[in-house]
Structure formats: C-alpha cells, structure tokens
Amino acid sequence: MTWIVAVFITIAALLALLFNRLVRDRNQVAAAWSDVDVQLQRRHDLVPRLVEVVKAYAAHESELFSRLAAERSASLHAGGIGERGDIEQRVDRDARQLLALAEDYPDLKASENFAQLSSQLVEVEDHLQYARRFYNGSVRQYNTRCEQFPHLLIARAFAFHPAEFFAAEADSRGAVEVKLP
User: Fold this and answer.
1) Is residue 98 a contact partner of residue 51, using CB atoms and an 8 Å limit?
2) pLDDT tens digits, residue range 89-133?
3) Which tens digit of pLDDT belongs to each residue from 21-33?
4) What pLDDT band is residue 60 in, cutting at 50, 70 and 90?
5) What is the C-alpha R_g of the chain?
C-alpha cells in the first residue's frame, strides 16, 4: 500500500514540475515581449523627432513622412503580435529609408541634431534586434515544450497555447532604396 502512495506522490510531483516549467516558459515569453515592446516604444518616440529634422531638408518626401506617421499610429493600436510585427517591419523599412536620405542631403548629414537622433535610432534598432532574438528564442523553447511529451499532456490539459514568433518579412531584409525626384 505504501508503494502506491509513493508512486502517486511521484506522479503528482512530476506533473507539478512539468506544469511549473510551462508556466515559467510562458511567463518568459511574456517578459521577452515586454522587452520588445519597450524598444518599439523607444523607436516610436525617436522616429517623429527624426522626421521633423529631415523635413526641414527634404520637404518633398512628404509621402514617406505621412507613411511613417500612419504606421506608428497603426502599430500603437495593433491587436496581436503578428499584426504588430507586420506593421513594425514597415516602420523599420521606412525608418531605414529616412536615414538613407541623409546621403543625398549633405547639410542634413552634417546636422548635429540629425547625427544624434540617427545614432540613437541605430542604438534602439540594435537593442530591438537583441530583444526580438530573445523573444523568439523564448517562444521557440515554450512552443517546443508544449509539443513534446510529457509536457504536451499538461499543455493540452491546461490550455497552454503556442506563442507567435516575431518574424521579419522577406522584403525587409534587402537594401533600402531611396528615390528622389
């Protein structure tokens, strides 16, 4: 009779261990997304300031400025991670295009304000890249555990759902094209 109690206690302890590991992984995914969100907010705070500096030199680029403002607003109101990821990829592409404009405007490139803001934006992008990698690694670990036996049994029983990756669009990986009239 005592061995049955010992087996029951061992199984209960194993189930608790598996459940707690899934909870920890899910919480790490949430914390990693929070880090990504902080970096996205930093970028959203810098981009309008950078746009204002560039506007003074490149007034005919109003389409790019309008697009960046609309994308920033859409990102702040996006629903899920997938939707926000798509919008952020467009923000990233247009922000890189904004920085590339400096090559065609020597006065802008020499502006101390532009240099400082673009340097800060590059720094934010570096932090954002790290935060995305950490988030995606956390998602990979969590999703893998949710799909592997014996975690799979606990994940299904307690409705642990897979997390979404924050992926880059294929077209956002190329060089930025700057077209001036």
Assistant:
1) yes
2) 888 887 877 777 767 766 666 667 777 777 888 888 888 889 999
3) 999 999 999 999 9
4) low
5) 23
CB 78 within 8 A of CB 166: no
d(CA 107, CA 130): 32
SS (H, E, C) 119-155: HHHHHHHHHHHHHHHHHHHHHHHHHHHHHCCCHHHHH
The answer to whether the beta carbons of residues 169 and 89 sit under 8 Å apart is: yes
Chain-centre distance of CA 161, in angstroms? 19
Domains, the chain, with CATH or none: 2-173 (1.20.1440.20)
- Which residues, other chains included, contact 48 with Cβ-Cβ below 8 Å and sequence gap of 6+? 68, 69, 72
Upper half-sphere CA count for residue 24 (Cβ side, 13 Å) = 9
3-state secondary structure 154-168: HHHHCCCCCCCCCCC
Largest CA distance in the chain: 87
Among candidate residues 43, 170, 173, 47, the one with its CA nearest the CA of residue 99: 47
Is the CB of residue 161 less than 8 Å from the CB of residue 40?
Answer: no
DSSP string, 62-89: HHHHHHHHHHHHHHHT--SHHHHHHHHH
How many CB atoms neighbour CB 67 within 10 A?
Answer: 16
Kindly state the tokens that stand for 5: 């109690």
